[in-house]
Amino acid sequence: MRTAAKALTVALPAVFILVFFAFPVANLLSTGLVGGGLHVLGGLFGSGRERGVIWFTVWQAAVSTLLTLAVAMPMASLVARMGERRRRLVRALVTVPFVLPTVVVGGAFEGLFRRFGLDSGALRLDGTVWAILAAHVFFNYAVVVRTVGSYWAGLDARLEEQARILGAGRWRTFVEVTLPRLRPAIAAASAIVFLFSFTSFGVILILGGPRRATIETDIYRFAVTRGDLTTAASLAVVQLVAVVGLIALTTMLERRRPITTRQAHRVSQRVGRAWLWGNIAATALILGTPIGVLVERSLSVGDGYSLRNYGALIHRTRRLPVPALLTLRNSLLYAVVATSLAVVVGGLASLVVVHGRRVLSRVFDLGLTLPLGTSAVTIGFGILITLDRPPLDLRTSWIIIPIAHALVGIPFVVRTMVPVLRGIDESLREAAAVLGAVPSRVRREIDLPIGGRGLVVGAGFAFAVSIGEFGATSFLPRRADTITAPVALFRLLSTPGASLRGQAMALAVVLMAVVAVAVVAIESARGTADGGM
Amino acid sequence: MKRSTVKVLTLIVALGLVATACGSTNRTTADTLEGTTITLVTHDSFALSDSTLKAFTDQTGVKVDILESGDAGTMVSQAILSAGNPVGDVMYGIDNTFLQRGLDAGLFEPYASPALSDVPDKFKLDPQHRVTPIDFGDVCVNYWTDALGTAPPTDLADLTKPEYAGKLVVENPETSSPGFAFLLATIVRFKDWEGYWAGLRANDVKVASGWEDAYYSDFTAGGGDRPLVVSYASSPVAEVVYADPPVDTAPTGVLADSCFRQIEFAGVLKGTPHRAAAQALIDFMLTPTFQDDVPLNMFVFPVTKSATLPKVFLDNVTVTDTPLTLDPATIEANRDKWTARWSEIVLG
Amino acid sequence: MLSIESATVRFGELVAVDDVSFTVPDGQTVVLLGPSGCGKSTLLRSIAGLQPLDSGRIVRDGTDIVALRPHERGIGMMFQDHALFPHRDVGRNVEFGLRMKAVGSGERRERVSEMLRLVGLSGFERRTVTNLSGGEAQRVALARALAPAPGLLLLDEPLGSLDRELRDRLVDELPEMLRRVGISAVHVTHDHDEAFAVGDQVVVMGAGRVLRVGPPMEVWADPCTETVARFLGHRNIVGVGARGQVPWGEISVGPGRVVVLPDAATVVDPGGTRIDHRPSFEADVVASRFRGGRREVEVVTIDGSARLVFLLVREVIVGERISLVLDPRRISPIE
After folding, report:
1. Under an 8 A CB cutoff, do B243 and A395 touch?
2. Which of A1, A158, A435 should one mutate to test binding to chain C, selecting the residue with the greatest count of C CBs within 10 A?
3. Distances, alpha carbon C155 to alpha carbons C32, C45, C120, in Å
4. Do A431 and C75 touch (CB under 8 A)?
5. How far is A180 from chain B (nearest CA, A)?
6. Closest partner residue to B347 among A211, A493, A495, by Cβ?
7. Distance of CA B149 to CAs A472, B3, B205, Å?
8. With contacts defined as CB-CB under 8 Å, which chain A residues touch C71?
């Protein structure tokens, strides 16, 4: 019984990732590289253009990560000091950008640039690398606020008080006392932001201008437009190698010093008014303005404003097989399945990462984060050519879509849960053991409920990722009768006509509202346990 | 420990198999079509009235599942990857810019539909009938009449003139299907197409990554400052059909001289266990039921001579008799060369 | 009955627990007393099964339990800082061990309220543990450890984090609660007052080894070694010559080193009659402190060679020169 539970903990995530990620990707790469692939791979590094593309990909991802950290850390600090209720609300609100299709956000950004005269001239942002970075900050703000903020809330505030009493100023205290203890969470958040930016597709194409290319966009270009699978596979290998290197690095940072978070003594810290409002204003500016543009567009009809676009969502247009609002039902269904998969697989995997033997732990950590840094083309096409024969012909099954979503959601669950699990005081586990709990029971009674803080944040992410996901699934065949909201939105936008565009914008706004409510609901499901941490 | 791991693994795989077996379609080679379900693989612009495919099912007893696969390029790439073991039975939506790639990969089995007699010969690009033409659309430069501030261009060559400086947005041919079609239009039209693009660049042409981006961000329709965009001949129709508030005439017009013809084909995918049903679906696509339903759903034109166009189409669109065309084999052979050269000239 | 036989734990080069043996008779509390780092907590964790022994046996009622894992040992433990589960309320903390034994919910509820009554927290079932005071958390931890009716209770510095008043109160109450349950206990502390108050037996440890074992009074009055004496807080450690001479005169014990217990001295009137033949000596009072209801007086012998601390009945004032006699029964030789 005991070994069976243990084996399941290891086997379930392992089988999932092997079947739905590792085999498909390996299969695609070997198909692509067969005959002359290595030659092409070598040629990539010889070509000045591709070297430039690889360098730009890494560079923009690294800068996006640093910028996002810099911009989002103040809000994370605020979130850490909030009451649980408010924290949940803020966590949900910042998640909203996650579900917005890049084509919509790209449009909103370009609209903003135009409005403020940043689309041309000396202060031109449109079509520059700055536009890419700004959009990445917009999308990833939530990652830092949620991951770091929640972890921060669990730290014992007495250490900061001690430092202040010993004469350290606010800034010194932060740098010397708080920051080192936040390292696991910052490392986790950075890894996610980096990988997200690393494989960013729509933002690069839409906002970067026609001259920008990354490994991700080049994989698409070679695999789809040119039909050159060999070069695409070679690029995919380069991408995988880079991602493995990065994950290994952050894993090292995350692991180095476990911080105990038991019985955090939260003291109601007064937050300076200027700090509070400065933060809210900054967030409103960063997240609010592009969203504001969307809301405005969704309300604008002709020369005035009206709710007509929202009303139109309940009627079917010819461009969609069902009324636009109904596509939300499919999205929610997929998201629920994907989130459940991500929580189960990611939750079990986190236990293995934290408690498993060294090698196993490393392999899991790496293997489960990898999908986040792998091109949507590689995953989609890999599944297509691998899970293509009975009894495992999933190509036409609806389940493959939530599975693909879960692949992206799992890293979020693992990355947010592992630091929390590592922070659990060992004596709690020992106490449970002494009280008669067998090791698997200890995992269930101590690790899972307490790690649930991370799990819940990860689940919120997984949900939002699934609701908004457009990448991996656009390279998989989709059943037309289960069209999701982002796909519907994209289709509304692919035909001229003001009413279609208005509907698309209204659908985007509804999508944001739905995800905000859903994330609040998911995170409330945890009950009181979180509040006490 | 080892043994139980194996047991658990076996259990999981077995469960997975049962689950998937239940989900997959039941494929039998039956002589009667009644009760068969076939899968139509198409791109994500596909749309029909509810009644249309139902009419097919009523007539033949064949149910049709629809599987969408991103854009046409993605769809063809996917089909090539799974050649011989296709995801579906019929593909619909492969156009002349990707046709040769699909034919070279041996995706289709020949089928000459009797209904082809109703289709003009100019659409029948494959003499072996591996694919059947179903609809066509023209990629043309559109203009927003009120925002142009000058007379609309009448000749493709006009676009390099000073009065249209800073007014045109095109799509990148490497990432966009209409973008590539427009590049082909210029290649067919101008002997010195490279010089033409150099002229467009000098005239401050803007390049967007895709149609949505160009039409809804840069073009006047989305509040942008470019009154000229590469779009479709049918776009003005959609501007009327989906106008809000309603309008009588389209705010946009089409530069007929710039139109490149895209023909969309359907084909029976090689490896289908439902050949007869698949062929029946191809036949059905050439019936008036299907052909008449195509314009207002996908904003393309039916290929059959007997098809009728809705009034809003007739009022707002002119189909040019002399579109620019290019042989699919030439397109496929030169695609990489042309787009690379284009990149050097326009983006370099 | 529990016996520890030649228990040894090594951490690399360091021998944390070095060949330790002692027994815990049924129903008694044995206190492991020693400075921090002496190995007492490590030994306790070994008894619980949390730290494997490198050699030695732990025998409970005739069976060696070394091979058993913590959850199989049926031992209760109170952790330093309590280790209450923050995600469960008081009641669910207390019932944890019962759930592990698959006790039915009705019986669990009864047992929980019985335990909370025992520790004086009736009605606390639904309180969250993070809002408890230190003393309450302590009691909950005790109730949780006792609820599954373990055969043995281990307490790791259980009173370490409490304030003085609470600690004093719990020092009184803890043995009483354990007696009522009738459980054997091993209690680890570095505080000798606490050790003497709660223990039936005291095991003094230093550097991983057992230095002295015995009932509290005996260990206190006869620490046997200077290390133990110093650790127990004895200040009056004196070298005695072959004929009982000390620098300031003579005392009637020796030779060798001795510890003069603080209650050994009586003040005598220098001019008055001597009740017996005990030698007296003179000293100057340098400090007088009132501690725990008793007067602790620090004196320096007039030759300045020794500084001694006594509990005196008669009132003295700082600066006064007094004569003292020592009761030889309150002087113990040490090694």
Report:
1. no
2. A435
3. 10, 10, 19
4. no
5. 40
6. A211
7. 43, 79, 17
8. 433-438, 441
Q: Which residue carries 């420990």 as its tokens?
A: B1
Q: Is A394 helix (H, G, I), strand (E, B) or coil?
A: coil
Mean pLDDT: which of A88-92, A118-122, C26-30, C34-38 is highest? C26-30
User: In the numeric block, which tokens belong to residue B171?
Assistant: 């799509």
Can the peptide bond before residue C262 be classed as cis, meaning omega within 30 degrees of 0? no
Greater confidence (A443 vs B231) lies with B231
User: In this model, does residue C155 exceed pLDDT 60?
Assistant: yes
For B298, the token pair is: 């996908």
- What are B82-106's pLDDT values in tens digits? 888 899 999 999 999 999 999 999 9
From the number of C-beta atoms within 10 Å of its C-beta (0-12, 13-18, 19+), residue A84 rates as middle
Q: Which of A122-126, B151-155, C114-118, C321-325 has the lowest mean pLDDT?
A: A122-126
Mean pLDDT of all residues belonging to chain C: 85
- For chain B, which domains are there? 33-136+263-302 (3.40.190.10), 138-261+322-347 (3.40.190.10)
Contacts of B337 (CB under 8 A, 6+ apart): none
Contact flag B242-A381 (C-beta cutoff 8 Å): no
Using the beta-carbon criterion (under 8 Å), do A205 and B209 form an inter-chain contact? Answer: yes
CB count in 10 Å sphere of residue C219: 25
> In angstroms, what CA-CA distances link C213 with A340, B135, B175, C224?
58, 100, 85, 10
User: For residue B195, how many C-alpha atoms fall within 13 Å in the half-sphere facing its CB?
Assistant: 5
Contact assignment for A449 to C48 by CB distance below 8 Å: no
Which structure tokens are listed for C76? 């209760």
Specify the pLDDT at position C284. Answer: 87
pLDDT band at residue A170 using 50, 70 and 90 as cut-offs = confident
C138 pLDDT higher than 60: yes
Which structural domains are found in chain C, ordered by start? 2-231 (3.40.50.300), 237-334 (2.40.50.140)
Delineate the domains of chain A, giving CATH numbers in brackets: 2-20+38-268+310-532 (1.10.3720.10)
| Structure tokens, A104 | 């919509």
**pLDDT-based confidence at A528, cuts 50/70/90?**
very low
pLDDT at B6 over 90: no
Nearest Cα to Cα of residue B40 among B27, B26, B53, B30: B53
CB atoms within 10 A of CB C185: 26
- What's the mean per-residue pLDDT of chain A? 84
- Residue pair C80/A418 in contact (Cβ under 8 Å)? The answer is no
Residue A265 has pLDDT above 60, yes or no: no
> Is the model's pLDDT at C161 over the cut of 80?
no
SS3 annotation, A301-368? ECCEECCHHHHHCCCCCCCCCCCHHHHHHHHHHHHHHHHHHHHHHHHHHHHHHHHCCHHHHHHHHHHH
Looking at chain C, the whole-number percentage of residues with pLDDT higher than 70 is: 96
pLDDT in tens, C193-224: 888 888 899 999 988 889 889 998 888 888 88
**pLDDT value of residue A38:** 72
Inter-chain residue contact A435 with C128, CB threshold 8 Å: no
Q: How far apart are CA C308 and CA C285, in angstroms?
A: 10
What pTM was computed for the model? 0.81
Q: Tell me, yes or no, if C288 comes closer than 8 A to chain A by beta carbon.
A: no
Query: Is the separation of the CB atoms in A408 and A341 below 8 Å?
Result: no
Q: Please, which residues 22-81 of chain C have a Cβ atom closer than 8 Å to chain A?
A: 45, 48-50, 69-71, 73-77, 79-81
Both tokens of A318, joined, read 């010819």
> A388 and B20: CB-CB below 8 Å?
no
Which DSSP category does B239 fall into?
H
Can you read off the two tokens belonging to residue B11? 């259990």
CA gap A102, A86 in Å, rounded: 28
